[in-house]
Amino acid sequence: MAGMSDIAFFEAERSERLFADRLDTTSDERLALVLCKIAEHLHAIVRETRPTLKDWRAAIEFLTEVGHLCDDRRQEWVLVSDLLGMSTLIDALNSDRPANATPNTMRGPFYRPDVPVMNHGENICLDGAGTPVDVTIRLLDLDDRPVRGARVETWQANAQGYYENQQPDLQPEHNLRGHFVSDDAGSVSYRTIRPSGYEVPKDGPLGDLLGKLGAPLCRPAHIYFQVTADGFETLTTQIFDSEDPNLGKDPLFSVKPGLVGDFAATGAGSDAALKLDIDFRLNPHKQEHDA
Ligand SMILES: [Fe+2]
Questions:
Q1: Residue 220 in contact with residue 246, Cβ under 8 Å?
Q2: Residues 53 and 177 in one domain
């Protein structure tokens, strides 16, 4: 029988150690380390903020409500991860690139992989609604040499801030989605419309909480791109409208240097349009990171 001296009694000031000491750290060292770190930080938060039992029940209820909102069509936990900046932090740590390579952002939930390849110059706005924009993209390596044969997929919201797959009854199939291959000069060009920003879903528990605390919930207008090319890391990124008033307050923290684009006026009269010129600099492939 164990004597009293063998028992590790609970102590509030070092409560996380009691938990950590009970784990078998040899069976999965990494898992044990992560779980210990989670416990360490959680215990420290509790000691620092001293929640009452009522506070703690409210926290459990919040987490329960988040879980109840998740199903095949809605993933509230992803929104929690996004709005706390976790998704962007994890993406950033997993896509560390040289300073002159275009940075990655998250791909988001609206990508579709099934858009057929189109010809350069095509208009991807299939319902004619919105201010026309002529987009020219140059794909370059880190020494500014053109990357030919690169696959560029793009998708964006319409002028009301909705993606085609959010409004299957209102927008044509594949509206505002493009799929192009870069030419010998490493270029891709097409016509689209200027997208609008939009609010992230705020009808769930986190939107409610952040709304109460005055956190911004409007995403600045952006166009998504995914670029794949032999010999290079896949680039998934967004270009943000430099004139959007919410540019500095993206609730998903995706706005990074090099990802802001100017929609510049061009032409006159019936030819009046906007143009957007973008350079993407691709990072060479790293076998161990590009799954
Ligand atoms: Fe978006």
A1: yes
A2: no
CA of 267 to the centre of ligand 1 (A): 28
- What mean pLDDT comes out for the span 72-91? 92
- Render pLDDT for 22-49 as a digit per residue (tens, 0 to 9): 888 888 999 999 999 999 999 999 999 9
Contact 179, 173 (CB under 8 A): no
Residue 64: domain span: 25-68
Check: CB of residue 97 under 8 Å from CB of residue 104. Answer: yes
Question: Is residue 17 assigned to a domain?
Answer: no
Q: How far is the CA of 178 from the centre of ligand 1 (A)?
A: 15
Q: Domain total for the chain?
A: 2
For residue 31, the SS3 value is: helix
In a domain, 82, yes or no: yes
Question: Rounded to the nearest whole angstrom, what is the distance from the C-alpha of residue 109 to the centroid of ligand 1?
Answer: 8
> What are 133-153's pLDDT values in tens digits?
999 999 999 999 999 999 999
Distance (angstroms) between ligand 1 centre and the Cα of 41 equals 32
DSSP 29: H
Q: Ligand 1 centroid to 140 CA: how many Å?
A: 25
pLDDT surpasses 60 at 288: no
- Domain presence at residue 37: yes
